Amino acid sequence: MSNIVKKTETAFAAPALRLSRRSFVAGASALGALAALGVTGCAPQSGPKAADSGEEGETEDFDAVIVGTGGAGLSAAIAAYDQGLTNIVILEKMAVTGGNTNYSSSGMNASETKFQKEQGIEDSNALFAQETLDGGHNTGDEELVTFMCDNSAGAIDWLDSLGIKLDNITLTGGMSVTRCHRPTDGSAVGLTLVPGLVAAAEERGIPLRMNCEAKELVVNDGAVEGIKVEEKGKPKTLNARAVILATGGLGANQEMVTKYRPDLAGYVTTNQPGATGDGYLMAEAVGAELVQMDQIQIHPTVEQETSTLVAEGVRGGGAILVNAEGNRFFDEMSTRDKVSAAEQEQPGGFAWCVFDQQVYDNNKAIAKYDKAGIVVTGDDIADLASQIEVDPAALQATVDAYNAITTDGATDEFGRTEGCIAFAPGAMYAIKVAPGIHHAMGGIRINASNQVLDADGNPIPGLYAAGEVTGGIHGNNRIGGNAVCDIEVFGKNVGEVVAAALA
């Protein structure tokens, strides 16, 4: 049945969504680890008292309902609240906050930031936008890309004002300038960003409704006026003057992935199990246009047994990729689509991400990979080669040639010019990687005011969206570090836009 519910109807249903067993197990394991770290959000808080109760359950009234507690949803709520819109609520269908933002590892790309200037890094919004468009093979929405890049430094400042400092800057593939902002200690950005945003929401008393699944949008005369939910097994209707969808992507829904990309059947996913595409269905049912839905990004460095994403910052910090024969085969700092394609052409369709002690020490995420048991350690190059069963002479020659790029100024045969740091003698490490489903680049069509648009380009009254659920920003290839920029810039923006619209 339709996912549109008019106020006079009593329907309460939504299409069933299925997770592949492997995807669910991997995601559930990761969520368990996050819960152990205390990333569980605040306890459900009570909102306004029920205005009505009937066959469909309780009815509550809000100015705005935000669906999703990833970076976009949390940022939207905080920004709206700070602009005076306080009668709001955030919904989360899972038992933990954060969504896929919890798994964000590389950092947040941003240009012309105060931290770049402090560190003598020259950058420009125009260059950031151009490299983003180039990285997406000029299939991204130029207006949205320009808006994101122009407002990226402001988002960095805003996060800093919330106590979330991202001043450790590194490089990601497809970028010519060091602009990927990480926490001071170089750790994965998600596990700093989510707790920081949750704390800011709690400080403001913004209610977070956990285990509360959005089902259907309520419409009246073409305008969205609320949302039907199921909270802990009970139906409720939340009336609202605006609904903000920040529901994330579809990477954990194998059925939906293969609907748009049959060739990705059987791929592991880096997504958390709640990324099942709910927002697309709800928005499409009220007339929203979905764009570029076949553009589902695979990430080249995913450990296949645990679905652990090995952050792009590892390669940006100096790591190389070698095949089963111990040879490099491509520029590791190229865009994700090209690296993935080259990797799939290697014997066995996999690669070893190889690095030394310097890279290990400079990227805090590696210690977590090691603790998880996915890092192979060797006393030196020959020992590592033996551990990963490649020819020691071939691996030594590969490392020597790579070191010459920096030490002797040699030209890399694969064209790598960024993030080249000569390996030092001593311990060497490797992680076995192959491509995995990572990010939905297509999604709900929006404008720079985060209004959801129909096929004619007209805004659907009362409906807004931000984050991975939206499409058009990244085109057919997303640059590492741009997802966090996307969710923060557009998450903050939609909160401010809605607050202004409802003032």
TrEMBL record:
Q: Which SUPFAM superfamilies match?
A: FAD/NAD(P)-binding domain (SSF51905), Succinate dehydrogenase/fumarate reductase flavoprotein, catalytic domain (SSF56425)
InterPro entries in the cross-refs: FAD-dep_OxRdtase_2_FAD-bd (IPR003953), FAD-oxidoreductase_2 (IPR050315), FAD/NAD-bd_sf (IPR036188), Flavocytochrome_c (IPR010960), Succ_DH/fumarate_Rdtase_cat_sf (IPR027477), TAT_signal (IPR006311), TAT_signal_bac_arc (IPR019546)
Any keyword Cytoplasm? no
Recite the UniProt keywords alphabetically: FAD, Flavoprotein, Oxidoreductase
Q: Where is the FAD-dependent oxidoreductase 2 FAD-binding domain?
A: 63-484
List, separated by semicolons, the cofactors it needs: FAD
- Name of a matching Pfam family: FAD_binding_2
Q: Which Gene3D superfamilies match?
A: FAD/NAD(P)-binding domain, Succinate dehydrogenase/fumarate reductase flavoprotein, catalytic domain
- Spell out the family assignment given in the record's similarity comment: Belongs to the FAD-dependent oxidoreductase 2 family. FRD/SDH subfamily.
| Name used for this protein in its record | Flavocytochrome c
